Amino acid sequence: MTHRRLLSLDVLRGITVAGMILVNNGYGESFAALQHSRWNGLTPCDLVFPFFLFIVGVSTYLSLRKFDFRLSAVAAKKVFRRTLLIFLIGLSINWFDLAIGGDWLPLDHIRIFAVLQRIALCYCAASFFALTVPHRYTVPAIVTLLTVYTFILLLGNGYACDESNILARVDRFLFGEAHLYHKSPVDPEGLLGTIPSVAHTLIGFYCGKLMMEADDVRQKVRMFLLAGIGMLLVGWLLQYVLPLNKRIWSPSYVMATCGMAAMLQGILMYVIDRAGWKRWTLPFRVFGVNPLFLYVLSEAMAIVFGHAGISDALYGAVHSVVEAPKWASLCYALSFVGLCFLAGWVLYRRKIYIKI
């Protein structure tokens, strides 16, 4: 039974990682669905990162069960080690992007935060909550975090897409303009946005708890579907007061995307665990069992390809066959996913699972 549950979770993780690689590696003009919303709103591209954070929460519950959710030197060491490694890997990607162009010591302007750094902080916070706080307080903690963040947004001009936004002001004050994301006034992985992201991860953690407490697969499927519909409804209602916004990780965005992730997990659990339809899952299992390695590989490849001119040559070859720019961009991104799949397939066949 445990193997089956983890298989459906691996598949969801694999779908999400493949999606992250796909949307991160378009070239030139991409379809709107493969681009992040400019500010308020929601596109399919805006789902991949929150889905992954939801999975981090579920996986955190599963991984900490062996410690009986009690804080110990061994458990604390594991959490600190994984947090530090994930954060440093994310920082190394930011450094590599500069170093490959000759900027070897960009200490005064390297970007501090990014996707992996936020994952590291959320994992750390959710893990120590799980090890130190009775789990009956998980829902109150989620509500408290989202309520506090709501007041921060409302009182700090949090929906302004300019430098007056409280999220931008805090990041500039703490880290300086040079260390921030420069493609928008608000860093999408900034410090204050970690607050709702931790709540997001705790939602995944709590769903993992409910999943393990359910008696059979049918009840687990029902739990995920009902929880997903409920959260999606809450997110839909909240958007009328707090619009959906990925860049500031708005509370409505948290609830809506967690709801969709839970519903998809329930559907996958039904299809894979209950109905036994597994053959189609192989590509996603490849991505799901080595998610961090393949994501980092995709980022490193994108940096190398860009600086070496390989991206231009590869896109040119694709565009010579596929004339429509948006379709050519999609084919280019799919080729990136395919290259990562081949690397993952080699590891999968050899049963090599890179974990930290």
Please identify the structural class as seen in this structure.
mainly alpha
* Number of alpha- plus pi-helical segments: 13
Q: What's the pLDDT, averaged over the residues?
A: 93
What is the succession of H and E elements?
Answer: HHHHHHHHHHHHH
Residues in helix, %: 55-70%
- Our measurement of the CA-to-CA distance between the termini, rounded to an integer number of angstroms, reads 25 Å
Total strand segments: 0
Radius of gyration: 20 Å
Low-confidence blocks of residues: 1-5
Strand content: under 5%
The main pleated sheet reads as: none
Overall shape: globular
In short:
This protein is an all-alpha fold and 356 residues long. 68% of the residues lie in helices and 0% in strands.
Give structural notes:
- The chain has 356 residues and is mostly helical.
- The protein has 13 helices and no strands.
- Helix 7 packs antiparallel against helix 8 and helix 10 (282-289) packs across helix 13 (325-349).
Helix and strand layout, with pairings?
Elements: H1 2-24, H2 48-64, H3 73-99, H4 115-132, H5 138-155, H6 166-175, H7 194-213, H8 217-238, H9 251-274, H10 282-289, H11 291-308, H12 310-321, H13 325-349
Helix pairs in contact: 1-2, 1-9, 1-10, 1-11, 1-13, 2-4, 2-7, 2-9, 3-4, 3-11, 4-7, 5-7, 7-8, 7-9, 8-9, 10-13, 11-13, 12-13
Q: What brief labels describe this structure?
A:
356 residues, mainly alpha, 68% helix, globular, disordered N terminus
